[in-house]
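Data deposition worksheet. Section B asks for the primary sequence of the deposited chain exactly as it was used as input, without tags or linkers unless they were present during the calculation. Section C holds the resulting structure in token form. Section D is free text for depositor observations; keep each observation to a single sentence. Incomplete worksheets are returned to the depositor.
Section A, Depositor: J.P.
Section B:
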Amino acid sequence: MFSDCSSLVTAPSVLPALSVYDSSYSFMFQNCSNLITAPEISGTSFGEYACRSMFENCYSLINVSDIKATSLGENSCERMFYNCASLIDGPNELPAMTLSSKCYQSMFEGCIALTSTPALPATSLAEYCYCRMFFGCTSLFYVPDELPATTLATYCYQYMFYGCTSIITAPELPAITLVSYCYQHMFNGCSNLCYVKALFTSSINSASYGNTYKWLNSVHATGTFVKNSAATWTLTGVSGVPTGWTIHTTSSTGANYIKISNVSGDGTVQVLGSGYDTSDLTNNPPIVFGPDWNEVYGVWGLPTRFNKTYTYGAGVATSYQDYTFNDSTNPTSYTYNDVNSR
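Section C:
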């Protein structure tokens, strides 16, 4: 409808249709390189190919509204914001719980300014549903704590975070059984990635058709991998646990973990996630622990961010402990009680 209108700056404020039928809105604003604000999409049901490439190559787009669709047809939302190079904040959530084939494929691919993902609560996946979703999003830092689906689909997460060089901690992957190509290249090229928790027990191999083929290629040289205590697979390297990483296993009693990530450097302290505490610190302050806290992974010296993980005792403590750190630039001591169990 407005495809290739390179001078278009302002779009309608709302697209009011509640049902978005097959191919509706596809390519609607494609190549509108000066469009700044996307219209609100009221639809709660998207047909096949609805909204496909809707804002592709809208290089100036910075304002988008939440997507309300809870019913998705095949290829709906595919490449929706492809190459929107100025987009920093996308929708807060993609609320659909059941996905369709290729529905979010390449949705944010090439969004090099994007810093956080939408919430991704879906528990029923389809082939290629998240494939290449954030491919090449080099500024992406905030990712979901978990990708909650426990039943996977062929190619579902293939290339999902490929080349996302700012990610430090991967979403937890709770699925026990893998399927063909499901994690292939998932975190390939995430050069600062240093923490992965994946609970699958399926056998894996390094073959090019494997379910984890090069999923952790070119990640940080050292890191922590948490695997299921019932897993018997032992593959190391780019298609298993990266060489140089420390392996920990889950246990029936659980481990007490706390994480610290320097995000803004403004000296503020925040709790940013469930399952572990994340705090903003200034520079590289000294950290003081009680005698039973042991460092299981630490990396300092990243330009503006750092990440440390600690566990209590042997990592199988059943009681919660206090955690205290001191910031040398601020005499206040912060103490966290009831550290969440991971």
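Section D:
The mean pLDDT is 77.
The chain has no helices and 13 strands.
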